[in-house]
Design goal:
196 residues, ten-stranded mixed beta sheet, alpha/beta, globular, 31% helix, Rossmann fold
Amino acid sequence: MVPAMPRIIHLAGFPGSGRTSWCLSQARQVLESEQRVVWISTQATDPQRFAQVMLGLHPQHAARFHSYPAGEEFSNALLMVSNLIPQLPSTRLVVIEDWSDDKGAPQRILRENLKTLLSIISQGGIDLILTTLAYEDASGNGDADAMRVRSRSWFEEQGFETWRLEHIESKPGRRLLVTPDERAEWKLNDAGIGAV
């Protein structure tokens, strides 16, 4: 079952958990509905994975995917996209891939620029997915839930709903999508990632 998506999601996961594939799958659905996707990341999306997920998508729809590989200018990319979105009225989804508070600018400036973007998208009814790397709890307290989510409380204060994408060790290629309301099993495939 596919969980109902809130307007803004903070999706955390360990490396290789399928965060990019999940976001590309969401992007494809938006593109198929003839709306735009704006994608911000430090580097270009893996072209092979992008091609796999977008295979068969009409070129006219694929042209509505706007990618901004920002490198060390992540903070400036947030402002640029904030200024661009009002010029692209059919924008439906913004993806910020691999957010980190150390993207080449002081944390305060990055967060202020993200708040500016949040203000713009809330006015336009645009969804936002922001991904972060999770980290493992090394406290040794025996917590069964060893995944820790970076800046979780700050993002939730901004209105984000925190979701996690976790490996299922006993089922290769399967992931567990954990939302505040449910846990759903997903499967990685050539088309991205889909509900089981």
